[in-house]
Design goal:
Chain lengths: ~180, ~350
Amino acid sequence: MVGGLDSEDALAELYDAHAATLYGYIARRAGPDAADDLVSETFLTVWRQRTGFDPSRASPKTWLYGIATNLLRRHARDEVRRLRAWSREHGRQLTEEDIGARASATADAEALASTLAAGIAALREEEREVLLLVAWAQLSPLEIAEALDIPANTVRTRLHRARTRLRAVAHNPNAEVDDHA
Amino acid sequence: MPEHRDDNTPDDLDTRIDHALTRIHAEDVPDEQRVRAVRTRLLDTVRHHPEPRHTRPNRVLTIAAAAAVLAGGIFVAQTVGGAGLQPSASAAAISNLTRAADNAHDEPVPPGDYRYIRTHRSSTGGFPDNRDPDANCWYRTHTVIEVWIPADPAREWLQRTTEPNERTWLRCSEREAVRQGFPLPTGPRVEERRAARGHFNGENIGRENGRDIPLPPPGFGNPTPEFLAGLPRDPQRLYHQIQQYVQGDVEDDRPDLVFDEIRSLLTTGLATADLRAALYRAATYIEGVEVIDTAVNLDGRTGTALGFTEDGAREQLIIDPATGEFIGQRSVHDEMPAGTGDYTAVHTDVAGDRGVAPS
């Protein structure tokens, strides 16, 4: 599907190639209730702007994720609230002993996930975006750079900061992490 | 007794983090049926509904280019677009910054001695308040980070981080924190790290997807003293070079990223006086940059500030016009509760002994 989204068949092909993962990414960030509309709006936007698509600057996939991520910015408050709620529902406080002993792998993963969810909620939006594009959409830093129209270096820096904060939160779930850069 | 920070092998923790991330909101991933339902609706819309006029993709970040004088002596930039690169701030503000640039000097570091940089940071921490789904408990805390940079920066640096673990509460309290199952560390905690060239994370900048990301070659992504020495001292050329780096092939102007990169260069501890002078001048070309006449760093030292605001995030870099030193940052966000924010005071000196603060 190089260059031309020139027919409904081509749009259907694009959908079949990417919608499942994209839907998952959107639903996890904005919630299942908002996801239907956001997924539709993403593909409709791509369709309506198809004549302006420049294949030298992005692939259809990264174009999709760029649009989706942009749309998701309107849902930032919901996203943060959902993450905190998830954290509370799934969590118990992770203690130093838990990290050391690593009792049961499942309980440990669950507790860590709960802690991280709260940590992700506390990230800057720009850091959260790149982290989740990797974790929930499996984009590479280069693809993220294309999708968000920013340099690959900026993507790496934000990823690094996000993961540094998460590592610190995993060690000490109660303290806010400073960026000592 | 100060608590020693345990060093979990990054391998293990990063893998566990990767796994844990896949769990979060996993139940929200849709089934095939739902994905198919949206497909049907999408194609139906495309076939049967007329298209609106072609719209440009949203510009995610737009900077207002209005000029105004606000109370308190803040001069907001009047942007001047067009071919020539014109400084963005007003004449009076530029003169303050020019003074800072002209006065910039470094105390020489004798061989065997160290550049000493002490950053006092006051920041905000918090956790969800379980009595109210929409609220957080917030506290302020502070940290001191000291760095000893050898006269030859290729040799071993020392970084000491001291956390007194003293808090003041903006919302909730120490007792409430314990009650809600979030007891916070008490007692001072000191961590020291040593590394040649200041590469405290080794020769990697981190890990992603289970692999190390190596340090890039010297450049903005890895600002070595040699790289910094090679940057142009002409402010316009410096501005363009930074802009080129942060924007890459992107056409849209990203003044926020340029400001951020200047901040990053100033906080390396390696920006010599002539580079700082050029950075202060280069910053005046940033569209939307402000120069604030009087700003106070965390320790009460007064200076002039370069400011940038976007989407409610207000950043200031504070400079002493008398000495050209970078003396701190202020960072607040309009959508955060009053009293939250990040503030620093930076003190630069020369130390004779590593690990000993100059008196």
